[in-house]
């Protein structure tokens, strides 16, 4: 075949017609219409910085005359939120109590009720900033004890801890917010922790502190499982429960408990029996503000050990730098569940990000 015949053969073949695409703005606008947009005030676009002391989160409401679960402090998807009982038919969500504390030692119990065959639980403590669309322990604002294998969770990272628990067990939860020192955490460390999570939390320019000496412990049917967490992040902590796929619980905030901590158990936790209080007393609690000297963890953690005579400008500081107080990178097995988000009323003060994966 000569050159001219080859060119004619090519010209005779059908040519592909390029289809025109909509401009990028139009495509994005169309995609935006398909997605449901949550209207909760806590859903803030990424990288938006919240002003210091901005009133974004839940605060105890006057309508609650006793300590109970608060709908305004919980995810709206719960199938039932009673004063003391909770049920949830879908993926992990968090419910919090109506009142919390930032000082003192507090205790409550959770009675695991008959539940669905695939149900699971993570129970513990959370500040009002914890993601209610996730299980307790998903971020740095909450800490939990899980039924499966008795694992503990914080920052979406699971660790070996205590005994597994099932329907019929009663779990005691103790938080000790007394501390010896309040330490400022480096903002870079906080950014690394938040970046390790499956969902980006709301960015806030508030300083973050560790309460050195604070702790959380759990009990199963009156048997201490030991201290689960120490040196907690500063905040107002509320009793918190997350339930998965048909779980049911009943909370007991006191004053009478099935398995109150014994004097010996509390001494093992460096707590006196006179110092702890049932969570029902949170109704009378007045949140305290910090007025002690702030110790900078990065530069001045060992300043009290420095030599008083070393005041010359030529003197070298012997203060050792602390290791960063950062939790391990996120466990890749802990991801957000791909349920459909629902619209939430702007007056509800519950954090809504993405839904969580199964346990």
Question: Can you describe this structure?
Answer:
- There is one protein chain.
- The protein is 10% helix and 24% strand.
- The chain has 359 residues and is an alpha+beta fold.
- β6 (142-146) and β7 form a beta hairpin.
- The relative contact order is 0.21.
Keyphrases for this structure?
8-stranded mixed sheet, 359 residues, elongated, alpha+beta
Low-confidence stretches: 32-55, 291-359
Oligomer: single chain
Amount of beta strand: 15-25%
| First-last Cα distance | 68 Å
Structural classification: alpha+beta
Q: What integer value in Å does the Rg equal?
A: 26 Å
Tell me about the biggest sheet? 8 strands, mixed
What portion of residues is helical? Answer: 10-25%
Shape: elongated
Please give the structural blueprint.
Blueprint: H1 3-12, H2 24-34, E1 80-81, E2 85-88, E3 93-96, E4 105-112, E5 120-127, E6 142-146, E7 152-154, E8 157-159, E9 170-176, E10 181-184, H3 187-195, E11 209-212, E12 215-220, E13 223-230, E14 237-244, E15 247-252, H4 263-268, E16 276-278, E17 295-296
Condensed summary:
With 359 residues, the protein is α+β, with helices and mostly antiparallel strands. The protein has helices at 3-12, 24-34, 187-195, 263-268; strands at residues 80-81, 85-88, 93-96, 105-112, 120-127, 142-146, 152-154, 157-159, 170-176, 181-184, 209-212, 215-220, 223-230, 237-244, 247-252, 276-278, 295-296.
């Amino acid at each position: 075949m000569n050159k001219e015949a080859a060119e004619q053969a090519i010209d005779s073949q059908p040519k592909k017609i390029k289809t025109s695409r909509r401009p990028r703005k139009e495509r994005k606008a169309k995609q935006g219409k398909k997605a449901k947009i949550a209207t909760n005030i806590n859903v803030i676009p990424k990288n938006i910085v919240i002003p210091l002391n901005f009133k974004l989160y839940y605060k105890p409401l006057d309508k609650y005359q006793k300590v109970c679960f608060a709908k305004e402090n919980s995810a709206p998807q719960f199938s039932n939120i009673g004063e003391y009982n909770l049920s949830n038919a879908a993926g992990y969500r968090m419910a919090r109590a109506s009142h919390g504390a930032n000082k003192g030692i507090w205790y409550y119990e959770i009675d695991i009720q008959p539940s669905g065959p695939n149900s699971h639980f993570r129970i513990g403590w959370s500040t009002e900033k914890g993601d209610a669309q996730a299980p307790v322990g998903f971020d740095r604002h909450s800490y939990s004890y899980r039924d499966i294998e008795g694992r503990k969770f914080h920052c979406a990272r699971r660790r070996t801890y205590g005994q597994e628990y099932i329907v019929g067990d009663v779990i005691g939860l103790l938080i000790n917010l007394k501390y010896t020192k309040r330490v400022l955490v480096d903002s870079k460390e906080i950014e690394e922790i938040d970046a390790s999570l499956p969902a980006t939390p709301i960015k806030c320019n508030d300083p973050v502190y560790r309460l050195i000496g604070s702790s959380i412990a759990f009990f199963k049917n009156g048997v201490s499982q030991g201290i689960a967490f120490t040196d907690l992040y500063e905040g107002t902590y509320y009793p918190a429960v997350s339930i998965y796929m048909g779980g049911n619980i009943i909370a007991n905030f006191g004053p009478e408990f099935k398995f109150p901590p014994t004097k010996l158990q509390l001494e093992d936790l460096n707590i006196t029996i006179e110092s702890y209080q049932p969570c029902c007393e949170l109704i009378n609690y007045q949140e305290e503000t910090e007025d002690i000297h702030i110790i900078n963890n990065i530069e001045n953690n060992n300043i009290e050990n420095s030599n008083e005579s070393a005041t010359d400008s030529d003197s070298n500081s012997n203060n050792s730098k602390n290791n960063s107080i950062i939790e391990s990178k996120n466990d890749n097995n802990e991801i957000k569940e791909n349920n459909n988000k629902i619209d939430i009323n702007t007056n509800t003060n519950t954090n809504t990000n993405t839904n969580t994966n199964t346990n």
